[in-house]
Amino acid sequence: MVNTIASHGIRTLPTCIRNIVNGMVAISRLQALLQLEEKENYTVVPNRLDIAINVSNATLTWEQMIPNISQKGLKSKKGEVNLIIAENEKNVPEEISPKTALVSTLQSETGLPPVLTDISFSLLKGKLIGVCGPYGSGK
């Protein structure tokens, strides 16, 4: 009986450690999000009162920090994207540590790579929506 209890604890230890690490990563991301400077909201009063969220022809972009990148880019591995540093991003600002670099594949009007283009959707009030994807996928 004691042997069974001990062996179960030992078998579940790797899963527990992985879940603790994933939780720590999630908490650090949440902390970073809460410490961001607040931006001005760009909202319009909807025409229909049954719509909770309405996005029309949106192009979305964001900065991505990649640690330890050479200026030649990354080699593609299975399930990864090949990222190349744009010409105007090779001189990384002093605020960014030397082990990180801002990378992009395309430049938009804002100077950031467009990640999602021409996105339109409406979410009705009271409806449930789920966004799925692995850790770090940009959900």
UniProtKB/TrEMBL annotation:
Q: Which SUPFAM superfamilies match?
A: P-loop containing nucleoside triphosphate hydrolases (SSF52540)
Q: What is this protein called?
A: Multidrug resistance-associated protein 9
UniProt-listed InterPro entries: P-loop_NTPase (IPR027417)
* Species in which this protein is naturally found: Stegodyphus mimosarum
